[in-house]
Amino acid sequence: MHSENLKPFRYIPLSYNHADSHASALRLILTLNPHWEGRDNKIEFVRFTDGITNTLLKIVNRKPGLTEEQIDHEAVLMRAYGNHTEILIDRERETSSHALLASHGLAPPLLARFNNGLLYRFIRGRPASHEDLVTPFVWRGVARRLAQWHAVLPIKGAAAPTEPVEDVPLMQQVNMDTADCRMLKQEDISVITPKQPGPSMWSVLQRWILALPTTTEEQRKRRLGLQKELEQVVSELDDGKGLGEGGLVFSHCDLLCANVIVLPESADSDEATVNFIDYEYATPSPAAFDIVNHFAEWGGYDCDYNMLPTRSVRREFLSEYVRSYSHHKGIPESSHAEIVDRLCEDVDRFRGIPGLYWGVWSLIQAQISQIDFDYASYAEVRLGEYYAWRRELDGSRAQANEEMPLRERRWAQEA
């Protein structure tokens, strides 16, 4: 572990203002880099994303005589948080996760935090597309890097939630109509107790369900139904087995295509070298969840299930993953086949959980986000994945003599 990266980093008592983007970002970068002030400097802002979830700016200084590589070497990324996103994301945990990753050389160094965001070093490379994810050139790189995360990062490095889990409905949290919400207690909710104490994707999902709106009878019934599903999957899947400490590894939990950066030096290789960015959802989880959550992203934002990996492709990915995991853990090659077999089974068992996870997330986004995206419909698509998996598991789909949904058919394909 690189202990020098764990030293406290700078706090800048300023805020980024979405309504006054240029001026507020300029104040932040000149506070961080006062030597960028003056006539010989040419500061530019490149906007990567802009929305209620967050704003991501690349800040560069195009001083005369510098090459693009030299400019990028000194470039700074500024991530400013969107309104109300603390409902979904524990920002203290995100900062702690970033620092932990940087200490292992798996994230760019953190430079400073400010009132509503972070400043950190830029990584050269290009974001993958969902078409990239399905190519062996890229997915082999993802498998190797993800295995490294799971093998070397301690789950004890994950920050504990900043507040205890409480039954505070979403509408109350965002200061909307609170009269009815204040009266709601958790008499109908039995909060889960995961096998491993501390933060995990199970506790995150529990917090999200407790944050769902409950102003109408329909909303209350839905929240209770989702809570029952969570209780069932925890009883079935949170068994303390699998890779890592007590069945948990330090996971990214949001490996969509844009969070996979293909590094420039990959061009001359048969296999991509990749890094992962955006650690908002990083937390301990079963390795199988992190892997199958990534597989779900092969379909892209449109959920094109024809793009999902078949059984043979999943096994190839997991074989690459196990080679890398074993290398970092010092596990002998003679054990590889057994670990791959077990992971294949675990990934198969977890295939419906990303639908539940992001379905609940989308129900919250439908209430708080100002992005031009139909989160309510997306929630039904993702929850539909979960319920389709559940119906395969309990046999109810076959008993009803209904056709197997496309996602389940694709998942069952051999090649």
Automatic annotation (TrEMBL):
Cellular component terms (Gene Ontology):
cytoplasm
- Xref: Pfam families: Choline_kinase (PF01633)
| Family classification | Belongs to the choline/ethanolamine kinase family.
Task: Supply the InterPro entries for this chain.
Answer: Kinase-like_dom_sf (IPR011009)
What is a GO molecular function of this protein? Answer: ethanolamine kinase activity
Write the record's keywords in alphabetical order, separated by commas: Kinase, Transferase
Q: Please report the name of this protein according to its UniProt entry.
A: ethanolamine kinase
EC code:
2.7.1.82
Instruction: Reply yes or no: does the keyword Hydrolase apply.
Output: no
